Amino acid sequence: AAKTAGGHRWHWFDAEMDRAADAAARLSAELRDAVRGNQLVALYQPIVALPGGAPAGAEVLLRWRHPEQGLLGPDAFIPLAEGNGLIVELGQWVLREAVRQAVDWRDRLGERAPGRISVNVSARQLADPHFVDFVASLLRDSGLAPETLVLEVTETAVLAADTAFDQLHRLKALGLRIALDDFGTGHSSLSLLLDCPVDLLKLDKAFVSGARAGRAADAVARNLIVFTDDFGIDAVAEGVETAEQAARLHEAGYRFAQGYLFGRPVSADALEQMLTVTAVAAA
Ligand code: C2E
Ligand code: MG
Ligand code: MG
Ligand code: MG
């Protein structure tokens, strides 16, 4: 009897797995139409200077306005896009959109335009042999000052492709900036940092507001800023949610931060509104 029950359970489990796989396959197929069908949305989260919180830039965070499921976050579809190769097309969309928006802000807002626009780049994009040429022509055609653009890559992505270092050097040669994202969650090899042409390091939110934030996380945050200062690399603390966290990070030496305390990811229009309000408040 026990065997029958067990068999039953496995049947049920298999069916659930099949359903999950079907759903993923469907979503993966729908993603193709999303790119062409205007369903992708670029949100912008402010990156600010400490201690005052003055805007210093913005990070582009992708969303998918799914016709039935509503607004989906990257965790729901970026892994699928990496699996089926659509990430290259998706990544091109994000970069084009970010550069178009940056030029628009530059032309209309002048000094109030975000000084830097950060775009996430996945391992698969970095490994794509056409990626550097794509970015180069985008910068050339748009006329955007290259130093306005920041490409965020993770340590994992850098370690995944043996061509990554070469690609990063070629990207740097275009005049843009490279950020190492989610620092502290991967291998966190300091020697990688030294070999990698990186301008900026983003301390992962796990060390700032994550469930494991505490004394050890604090020590990582404090030591990292000493290290980056020594090497002339900028550092941004991610996931800053409270004024207390911001004060502690500033005291440790952080000059830039990003997190819900300063602003959630919002539409380009809403970010522009925030910039205007901040400018008025500062005047
Ligand atoms: P990320 O690049 O590390 O982006 C920061 C993530 O932390 C974002 O999640 C953001 O909404 C969230 N966040 C910001 N402030 C806070 C805070 O104070 N507290 C907490 N708990 N979270 C905060 P999101 O938008 O869900 O993006 C998740 C990840 O998806 C990103 O992590 C990035 O790795 C990836 N991603 C987003 N957009 C793109 C894209 O256009 N291309 C690629 N390849 N990946 C993307
Ligand atoms: Mg990022
Ligand atoms: Mg990050
Ligand atoms: Mg992340």
Automatic annotation (TrEMBL):
Domain EAL: 24-279
Signal peptide: none
Domain of life: Bacteria
Protein name: Diguanylate cyclase (GGDEF)-like protein
